Fold this sequence. Notes:
- By secondary structure, the chain is α/β, with parallel strands linked by helices.
- The chain is 45% helix and 13% strand.
- The chain has 19 helices and 14 strands.
- The strands form four sheets. Strands 2-1-3-4-5 form a five-stranded parallel sheet, with helices on both faces. A five-stranded parallel sheet has the order 7-8-11-6-12. It has a two-stranded antiparallel sheet with strand order 9-10.
- The longest helix is centred in the last third of the chain and has 24 residues.
- The radius of gyration is 26 Å and the shape is globular.
- 37% of the residues are buried.
Amino acid sequence: MADTPARILILDDDxxxxxxxxxxxxxxxxxxxxxxxPRQLARHLQGGVPDVVLLDFNFAPGRTxxxxxxxxxxxxxxxxxxxxxxxxxxxxxxALAVEAMKRGASDFLTKPWDNARLLAIVEGALARRAAPASxxxxxxxxxxxxxxxxxxxxxxxxxxxxxQANVMVLGENGVGKELVAxxxxxxxxxxxxxFLAVDMGSLPETTLExxxxxxxxxxxxDARSDRAGRFQAASGGTxxxxxxxxxxxxxQSKLLTALERREVTPLGADxxxxxxxxxxxxxxxxxxxxxDAQVFRPDLLFRLNTIVIRVPPLRERRDDIPALLRxxxxxxxxxxxxxxxxxxxxAFDALCAHPWPGNVRALRHACERxxxxxxxxxxxxxDFGLHGGEPAAVPRAASTDMLVLDxxxxxxxxxxxxxxxxxxxxxxxxxxxxRAALYRKRAKHGL
Length: 447
């Protein structure tokens, strides 16, 4: 929290509702004020802008259209030091909530609310406001986009971050699951501690216990000194278990034991050590497979997925593509000392319509390619490694050969991914290429 006490304003014409919220929120703020009439707001703001405003949508008797609340929201968002605004409605109107989010509301509640959710949402809003220039806000900013799915994602991170709940992040390759994990850490009370990411899919099962739990000198042939495991190294912070879905079942059992007992025993040690870490895990496994007991232990899943965050693929938030293109083109132009270049209209339309199977990662790589290889002035579609319109004339034999080679490459990549159950690191090893190259080939073939 910031040095100054947190201030919350509840703007609701129902005195009972306002008082109930005030009682709950006294746990997380030094000053909780209520107002029944939005016409009193201007005078109230003369005493200072609150950190968080809980705003009802309707005030006049019989009104249900939310116009009054939206007008107040616009008034609050126009302030130089705008508060976080959480809108409330007794009418679970999704369209109205969407409009409020578009206008800058950080979240919304329907009445009657659950007190735990109310607290979580307000605590998250206070945590974000407490350090607007902190790494936490930077991590949230890295999850770029103003589409509704991204606004909801950032709001969920802000709500869940300050809690101690274990979180499982689900999403396709390239959507930014590690960015979500880092944002959760930096929005938490553990932000001053270590954020340690572990690629679970790349840990050999034979050394899993040593890597995660540590070992004592002489506990095995190469144990020349004591070594702390990842759980001990992340003590007081967050341990991010990436690609958790690729962990073999036998290894899952060892991890489950550590989480259940909240302690680990280093190899060669006589006594267990207590652990103090928050677990954030991630996987690109389809949820149906994740709930298959032959793939993932249900009891371990229960320990890891107290909260589930699903990161939307880029094709489900196409409104964000233009801003992402501008951002990454400007970033790589500066990085490589190239003059800024516009995107040709037909190329822009094609880029916005592209399915982006590699998600933001693929878009970023395409922008880097365009900056490096493109001609000065304007970027065409080919600069991004995408091709539209009629294919260029290619001799029939050469065209056939290219199609055959493409098919062989696609089959090889698909077979490698299937053999290692989607583990990028292991598949890249089988194919003899880097992870980055494998990501590009998967994007190329839509795998």
